[in-house]
Amino acid sequence: MDHNCYQLKKLVRDRSVKNMEDKGTKVIWRTLSAAERTPHLLEKFMEEQQEVAAAFAANDKAEMTAELADLLEIIHALANTANIDMTDVEAARKGKTERRGGFSKGIYVDEIHCPKGSFYDNYCAKDPAKYRLKV
Questions:
Q1: 81 burial type by CB count under 10 A (0-12 exposed, 13-18 middle, 19+ buried)
Q2: CA 110, 46, 66, 58 torsion-angle sign
Q3: Which of 2, 32, 104, 118 gives 20 to 30 Å between its CA and that of 125?
Q4: 121: buried, middle or exposed (CB in 10 Å: 19+, 13-18, 0-12)?
Q5: Helix/strand/coil (H/E/C) assignment for every residue in 75-98
């Protein structure tokens, strides 16, 4: 056998197939429908998120920039697949920042003490895996 066959089974960038074929690789591929695309984009989002974390852990600014760009590309693709205009996403981001602030100050909440039945008590109680009740 003069070649190896690898199963990728993953979403790739639009020009990846051409780049592989230009280097002599035979590629078996297909175009996913929008409905098929979404779970693969979400999987790719998680993959890219881990690569962003690794770049930050290595404190490699060039790699951080490249991986953040990849993550942003996935966000654009997810919005496109869901027929959401990125200007609407940006408007929602700006609106949330104006109303609730951003993340630039690094404010970290260790715990909250809220009256039973209050808004935040009910909010946290809806997701006990995320908001653990301290006893």
A1: middle
A2: positive
A3: 104
A4: middle
A5: HHHHHHHCCCCHHHHHHHHHHHHH
Is 70 exceeded by the pLDDT of residue 1? no
Three-state SS for 69?
A: helix
Question: In CATH terms, is domain 16-104 a member of 1.10.3660.10?
Answer: no
Q: What is the pLDDT of residues 83-124, one digit of tens each?
A: 999 999 999 999 999 999 998 888 888 888 888 899 989 999
Whole-number percent of the chain with pLDDT over 90: 69
Each residue of 22-50: b (16+ CB within 10 Å) or e? Answer: eeeeeeeeeeeeeeebeebbeebbeebee
Domain boundaries, the chain: 16-104
23-44 confidence digits (pLDDT tens):
999 999 999 998 899 999 999 9
